[in-house]
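Re: the multi-chain job from yesterday

Posting the exact lines I submitted so nobody has to dig through the queue logs.
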Amino acid sequence: NAGVTQTPKFQVLKTGQSMTLQCAQDMNHEYMSWYRQDPGMGLRLIHYSVGAGITDQGEVPNGYNVSRSTTEDFPLRLLSAAPSQTSVYFCASSYSAGGGYEQYFGPGTRLTVT
Amino acid sequence: GENVEQHPSTLSVQEGDSAVIKCTYSDSASNYFPWYKQELGKGPQLIIDIRSNVGEKKDQRIAVTLNKTAKHFSLHITETQPEDSAVYFCAARGRRALTFGSGTRLQVQP
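And the result, structure tokens for all chains:
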């Protein structure tokens, strides 16, 4: 199993550009989520999905869109990048949202918006 | 929503000493408390977790304790080694998802 994979590893955008961060898992996990990590602030939940076709907002959803058309993939879209979105983005998945199942994290995407 | 506070933000210990990291949470409905270790340039990795019906759990040099009444839980690492140096995050699972603490940078001096 590859686990959770994310592409790209690094990205530089100009203000106003759009892009999609890719996330895929091969563990047949129901639950997938996106976090951003900023210095001194831990990981903050952006969006999550409890299954294909179902998504919901997390703590910091503004400026980001998600969709879940398959169990395996959970892309994160930035519609109009802003410098405040400079961060490291992590995708995670787990067997289920409830019951205390381990969340597996991808290696992260480091995004810089100039 | 859930709020998780973590202390200290940095911790430096000598090799062989113990390290303790503490977290508090706000939502009494939270029932799952994992701890993650993050090495430089990598994603967080689960090292130990505890559920609300258990007060303590141990795995070799790592232990976690939970006090539901006081809403706090702690990570204990004994006989620290240089490879324990990393950033550690606590988290609490509330009604919707995991909420993370702000992290503790642990430095183990050889």
